[in-house]
Each structure stands twice: as structure tokens, then as C-alpha cells.
Write a structure and sequence with these properties.
Layout lengths: L1 H9 L9 H20 L8 H9 L4 H10 L8 H12 L1 H11 L1
Pfam family, one: DUF1759
InterPro entries: DUF1759
Length: about 100
């Protein structure tokens, strides 16, 4: 059962064209599988760096660039930071302001 959720996370589709709905689906997929793995008593709270690396690699070029530029420290990011970033990108008004700010 756990293997199925890990496989599903690793097999999530790459994003080639960004849209709020696609980013929301990406975010929901991550949340869903991590909740299921947590319910199975797996230590997902220790997997942030691995999960984030796998998921960032699935982002489109622009979102990937925005994620990297949003990082303010050299410390390893938390999954909650990544999910908050995705949430911000899913909100068209916030996304537009953020992209303008980052340029």
C-alpha cells in the first residue's frame, strides 16, 4: 500500500504548461499521498528534502525558476514552504504580483 503512494508521487506528471488548475492538481496530489503515507505511520516529516526535489523537477521552467528564486536561505526547505509556494502560484492575482516582484 505504501509503495503505491510512493510510486504515485514519483510518477506524478511533469508540468509543461503552467496553469492554476494544473498547479492545484500537483499540490493536491502531493497532499493526498503524503496524508496517506502519514496515516500508514511512515515518517514523511523527515522526507521534505527528497519530496521537494522530486516535485520541483516536475515543475515547468518558469515555476521552477520562481521556486529557486523564492528561497531566501541555504537551509533545506520544508514541504510546507513548497506547498505554500504552490498555493501562491495557484492564486492568479498573487501569482501575477509575485512574478512581477521577482523580475
Amino acid at each position: 500500500m505504501a509503495g503505491g503512494h510512493i510510486h504515485a508521487l514519483c510518477s506524478m506528471p511533469s508540468i509543461t504548461k503552467v496553469s492554476s488548475s494544473i498547479l492545484r492538481s500537483h499540490q493536491n496530489g502531493i497532499n493526498s499521498h503524503l496524508r496517506a503515507l502519514t496515516a500508514l505511520k511512515l515518517p514523511v516529516e523527515r522526507w521534505d528534502a527528497i519530496i521537494i526535489h522530486l516535485m520541483v523537477e516536475k515543475l515547468d521552467v518558469e515555476s521552477h525558476r520562481l521556486w529557486e528564486s523564492s528561497r531566501s536561505s541555504a537551509s533545506l526547505p520544508l514541504i510546507q514552504e513548497y506547498l505554500s509556494f504552490l498555493n501562491q502560484q495557484c492564486n492568479p492575482k498573487l501569482h501575477k504580483e509575485y512574478v512581477h516582484f521577482m523580475r
